[in-house]
Amino acid sequence: MKIELTRKRLCHRLTIQGWLLVLFALTMLVAVYLSVAQRFLAVSEPIDTKIMILEGWISDAEVSQAMQTLKNKNYNFLLITGAPVTKGGALAPYHDYAELTLENLKKQGYTANNIIAIPVKLVRKDRTYASAVEVKTWLEQHNRSPAALNIFTSGAHARRTRLLYRKAFGEKTEIGIVALENPDYNPDHWYTSSNGVRVVLGETIAYLYALLFFHPGM
After folding, report:
1. pTM of this prediction?
2. pLDDT score for 218
3. Residue ranges covered by each domain of the chain
4. Side by side, which strands form the sheet with 148-154?
């Protein structure tokens, strides 16, 4: 009996023209991503509502942008969310970004009683979703069932924030979103700075994870 250890097989390989076509297609995909990624992630679609949410972890410059936008708005509540401060906590009088941002606003003259800090417990993942749940819980405890609310957050984080708030609140509440300009990089040329690359690539991956794999209760 003849034992065969090898066998001839017909296979197709790319020609030079084929490799050039593949390279061209990849180049076009990268070019499209570079031009649309930031704009896609940093979506701004605010809606008419009396309840505003401000993510307290964003930079002071972005908080100032939000307050400028709200200056002439007639809103019932501005709820500031924030997870615990994870560095220098023993030295700071405020242990979470919600209280820290609230006190910062008070120092700037924003003393309205309708600006409220909502601290969020430390979680290892899905922090934005945890913030959304805390906001929903606070509203329910105060007999509020809003038909709509607006969220102010940092640039490329916006689309994921809106998605996770929708998952937390369900279909009964319409979620508006305002993407504030991240001062750490030029949004039109985000790929020219390390901060821009880190933020946009990171938010792209995080958004795809939240869209495809994250489900409440996981």
Report:
1. 0.89
2. 60
3. 40-212
4. 115-119, 77-82, 51-55, 148-154, 174-180
